[in-house]
Known about the structure:
The chain has helices at about 50-60, 75, 85-100, 115-120, 125-150, and strands at about 1-5, 25, 40-45, 65-70, 105-110, 155-160, 165-170. The protein has about 180 residues and is an alpha/beta fold. It has one domain (about 1-170): 3-Layer(aba) Sandwich (Beta-carbonic Anhydrase, Chain A). The protein contains five helices and seven strands, in the order βββαβααβααββ. About 35% of the residues lie in helices and about 25% in strands.
Amino acid sequence: MLSKKNTARCGPSNPVAICQPPPYTRVPAKNGGNETSQVIGVLSCIDYRVTPELVSLLYSEYKDFDIFVLAGASLGACGQLSCEWCGTFANHLNVMSSFHQVRELLIVEHLECGAYANNVPQVYQGRAAQIAAHTQYALNTVALVQKAFPSWTIRAVLVEPGQTLQLVKWIYNPL
Length: 175
């Protein structure tokens, strides 16, 4: 479980070239940290082109899931849009872990993301640059979560919105 110490290092007022995890400490879960769970946690973007299809896919694949949305998904979780979002993300991970015994996190990034377009200038350099930016922030979010929850299974995927979500690439998939 994470407890917020200081999020002043993150955010647009103090940009970080590569998203650095804010300093957190792990504290015991209130429920004793039961390691068995069927619930998956999901971090996704707020984009309305992604959410309906994603929720439909999650219902078809998983019995239960907790979904947490931030503009830009990993970009938001890393605090590049707001310092407070680092702490909010950390708090939500704690809730997922403590209340629903989540032990798996799926990070869903998508191309043509408005949050990236407005905050990461390199995405204007084409599709490869978009993929590189999403990969960078997703991998740094993976590192942030792994540091706090080393026993969790974490995966990150990049999709393209449309009538159906199209897989662009698995950014991180240790399975």
